[in-house]
Write a structure and sequence with these properties.
It is built from nine helices and 17 strands. With 309 residues, it is of the alpha/beta class. The two termini are 21 Å apart. Bound molecules: adenosine-5'-diphosphate and magnesium ion.
Length: 309
Amino acid sequence: MAKIVVALGGNALGSTPQEQKDAVAFTAESIVSLVEEGHEIILGHGNGPQVGMINLAFESSASNGEGTPEMPFPECGAMSQGYIGYHLQNAIQKKLAARGIEKSAATVITQVLVSEEDEAFQKPTKPVGSFYSKKEADKLEQEKGYNMIEDAGRGYRRVVPSPIPLDIVEKKLIKKLVDDGDIVIACGGGGIPVIRKNGGFEGVPAVIDKDFACETLAELVEADVFLILTAVDKVAINFGTDEEEWLSELDLETAKKYCQEGHFAAGSMLPKVRAAMNFVEETGGRALITSLEKAAQALAGKDGTVIKK
Ligand code: ADP
Ligand code: MG
């Protein structure tokens, strides 16, 4: 039996509400199988398409003069945590009941502490929301102080910083729920980024990488295993080329070398390998990168890529 923090990727969720419900039913089946084997599960997940959809809906409705208020980005993130968490906990509860497992599942709306001094705030990189013309983009920069960039010939988009996670505000509560034997969904979309302000916390428009946030979560709950589930069964070197080679094992030294050689795409596989390396370095635990389908096999050491000392 192990305490496992699972980071779910976009493919575990789908895009539309119905798609998400269907995808999550499959996700819940795998997760509850792990619970049935006696593992303690803490779930984190991405929110790219979902927070994009929520943000876009508010932006277009507000600009159509439909009377919808402008919705700040941290609030959009909170909504996406609630929306995805609802589907996940609902589907997991159903599978638990079907197998006669007396456990509960709940979502913790999670705030993740970042530093105002993080250099990411000097250089926003993460595109969010709608596409605009040059003229509209200039206006948004002036009126709202947004950072706008040209996005691959498709128009102008707002970019927000991607700071590193330092701490999880709700960590004690998450731990308590885990210790009680319940299944916790936390750090959705990397968490709502907050900074310390006026004796409390205040949301900032930024996006924390969900793989890094889940790694922080794994450290804080003292997980034995950090399990990153994505669209591929294993990590590869020379990915997508004739020399492609799928890896079963990756030690820290070799991983570092492969990162430097550019084998892992920035924004997709690189943060996963980096987060896995951090977990192994900091805790001595086991980190695995694999797909939802191969999760159980990977835990048994029969599939996936294991990152170890
Ligand atoms: P998620 O939503 O799970 O975070 P991403 O799309 O961000 O998924 O990252 C996973 C994707 O990274 C894989 O589906 C694969 O296409 C891509 N990828 C890039 N480099 C590699 C690599 N070296 N090995 C395996 N997959 C890679
Ligand atoms: Mg990703």
